[in-house]
Write a structure and sequence with these properties.
Layout (H helix, E strand, L loop, with lengths): L2 H15 L2 H16 L6 H26 L7 H16 L6 H24 L5 H20 L9 H8 L1 E5 L3 E4 H18 L2 H11 L1 H6 L4 H27 L9 H11 L11 H20 L6 H25 L1
Antiparallel strand pairs: 1-2
Helix pairs in contact: 2-13, 3-8, 3-9, 3-11, 3-12, 3-13, 4-5, 4-6, 4-11, 5-6, 5-11, 7-11, 9-11, 12-13, 12-14
């Protein structure tokens, strides 16, 4: 009589090990198709992935900081700086794209290092440190652009966010942005899951004191987490500049969307837990929620309401788990 329950337990444990975000994403996609059957066509779901690509990359990068026990609120302003700065530096010259992108990534490294140094060396909470960086980058973007967007991004720059590969078997067309998302996600997953850096980031977020006593180099690890987040913001900015054009508010709100996406993917806000694939799935889930609300005719501000409720629920859940653990 005990054989049946014993045979069912492994099945239940396998299902329990699957992150719930994948089931939520699948359910949302089904609802979207029911609302708009054309979404099931290659053009529909490829456009969806193209729109979600910047957020997915940003969430995967933000995850590094969250898992290490912090937050990066400067990512959205860095996206804006990338778009505005690139339009100013290219100066309508298609031949300037390569070196301008290199400069933007260099700026991303500097921003990440400054964030990491302020948090680690000066012991400023990451929320405050990156909030200050967010304000500073926003002001720099306004100063650089004179308060309004000028110029445009040449086609060689917009290629990454706008271009499509046509006549692809089965799917018909493949946006370059989706390729960038897949490659970036794979690299970030390998770095988090298959290297010592990823293990040290998890250890630092789980118990900073124990990690330090175990020999984890806190400064380099925190610097790496913030640099990865900033580089992901630069990549997201390049994609957004490709299909959204030049705007002084193009990155507004993306930092909170990235945190929300990581939380939807199961990242623990207090640090120590999270995975890149789940964070990307969380970004796709958030984009699916926005898409479904749009198809159902709900007003745009409802997106912020939903996003805020998700964050509140995540903070409450994290506090509850901490209390249970302490008890």
């Amino acid at each position: 009589m005990s054989l049946a329950p014993a045979s069912e337990k492994p099945g239940r444990s396998r299902w329990a090990q699957i992150n719930p975000v994948y089931f939520v994403l699948l359910a949302l996609l089904v609802l979207i198709v029911l609302q708009n059957p054309r979404f099931a066509e290659p053009t529909g779901y490829m456009n969806f992935l193209k729109r979600a690509a910047p957020l997915a990359i940003l969430a995967a990068g933000q995850l590094y900081v969250i898992v290490s026990g912090g937050f990066d609120l400067s990512a959205g302003s860095l996206i804006t700086l990338v778009v505005v700065g690139s339009s100013m530096l290219t100066n309508n010259d298609p031949n300037a794209t390569a070196w301008v992108i290199a400069v933007m990534y260099a700026i991303g490294v500097v921003v990440g290092c400054v964030n990491g140094l302020v948090v680690t060396v000066l012991r400023v909470p990451s929320l405050i440190a990156t909030l200050g960086m967010m304000i500073s980058l926003g002001g720099l973007s306004m100063m650089w652009s004179g308060g309004s967007p000028r110029g445009y991004l040449p086609d060689t720059f917009r290629f990454f966010g706008r271009a499509l590969i046509r006549d692809v078997p089965v799917i018909g067309l493949l946006p370059i942005a989706v390729i960038v998302m897949v490659v970036s996600g794979l690299l970030l997953w390998l770095l988090m899951s298959r290297t010592n850096l990823g293990r040290m980031i998890h250890a630092l977020g789980d118990n900073p004191r124990a990690a330090q006593l175990a020999g984890v180099p806190v400064l380099p690890v925190r610097l790496s987490a913030f640099v990865v987040s900033s580089l992901s913001a630069v990549t997201a900015g390049i994609l957004l500049g490709g299909f959204a054009g030049v705007s002084t508010d193009v990155g507004t709100g993306y930092e909170l969307q990235a945190i929300t996406a990581a939380v939807l993917g199961g990242a623990q806000l207090l640090g120590g837990r999270g995975s890149v694939p789940a964070a990307i799935a969380g970004a796709l889930t958030l984009q699916a929620i926005f898409t479904l609300l749009n198809f159902m005719g709900f007003p745009q501000p409802l997106r912020q309401v939903v996003q805020g409720l998700i964050l509140i629920a995540a903070v409450g859940l994290a506090a509850y788990r901490k209390k249970q653990g302490a008890g």
